[in-house]
What we know:
Layout: H1 5-14, H2 34-44, E1 48-54, H3 60-72, E2 78-85, H4 87-91, H5 97-101, E3 110-116, H6 126-131, E4 139-146, H7 154-161, E5 168-176, H8 196-216, H9 233-241, H10 244-251, E6 255-256, H11 266-270, E7 276-277, E8 288-289, H12 299-303, E9 309-310
Parallel strand pairs: 1-2, 1-3, 3-4, 4-5
Antiparallel strand pairs: 6-9, 7-8
Helix pairs in contact: 3-8
Amino acid sequence: LQFFAPKMERDVQEGQPLTMNPSDTAGMGESGDSALVQATALAEDATIKCVILYFSLTGNTRSVSETIAARLRQHRCIDRVELVDITRMAAARSPEPEQFRQLHLENYDAIGIAAFAWCYNLPPGVKNFISQNRWPRKPVFLFSTAGGGSRGNVLSSMAAALKDKDAVIIADKAFRAPENYVPLNPRAPNVPLWGSHDRVDEPTKFADEVAQLLENLPRPIKGLASAKVSGSILASATSWMMTPGMLKKMSGDIHCDRTKCVKCGLCARECVYDALAIRPDMEDGFPVRDPVKCQYCTKCVNVCPRGAMNSSRTAGKTPYRLNPDNWVEGKSSRSSRPPPPRAASAPVATATAPTASPAPTATATATV
């Protein structure tokens, strides 16, 4: 196209038919198509830079994001795909504009946004993260994860938050994941597991669809309208009824069982809402939960390797771990995380302060 465009434009302006003279094909070779091959190669070698921003607690959404990113990297039109964990940034409810600017989204050609279903809707803070920041005019693809029988209204809520932004939605997809809200899980030892269809096959197909759309999108995308993202009336009604009080009633009063707790501090470090703290001068160094900050997501119940965090609604239920085979007593699924001490008299660990999400100059390390 770059080879023939000047001549085609000249012929049209002069009212001449679109023909090719021998001089136009000079150097094309005996087959007469090397210039076309060269032009096609330019299109195929187009470099599209993508970033996927994901909000994940137990790792389901992160796992799907990693599968999609890995598949996108296999497409010739994609130059690179970077993963950025926005969990703590979005969980802050009112993310600092400077933190958002440090993501440098203007440096990418396409943006993916992923979150899980929380009470059939967006998790607390994610809506503010989307609506309170200025998004560049870039193609955006949305995807979500949800356990149970409903996919919720996560995608339509994200689309609504992006409605008045410059971003253009090109694709969306909801994926089914194992239930990780402990009160809804079966009693031990039944463990909810991923199926390869939902964890690999469906995300792979979605990545192929996104890559094809990105490859065929016009440049620039000015004037391109966002794709319609539909929601569910039933999910909207259910989400409206799920007030904080109702969620608290479903989750129960989460507390620490001091006969099991070894004061490792894992629950406090993993709480993205900063609702748990461990201080030597409070409660003898056992976890202290802030009921105002707590969102009753039961992540602390899921991550505690000793089963010390519990409530009347979670007792005896199966905690969810992304890779249950990698979880044994005193060992977590993250190799970088030190195992909790085995003796109750071990030194008390203090909760680490949350850090801001790094700019996507390299693949960000997942924190959940």
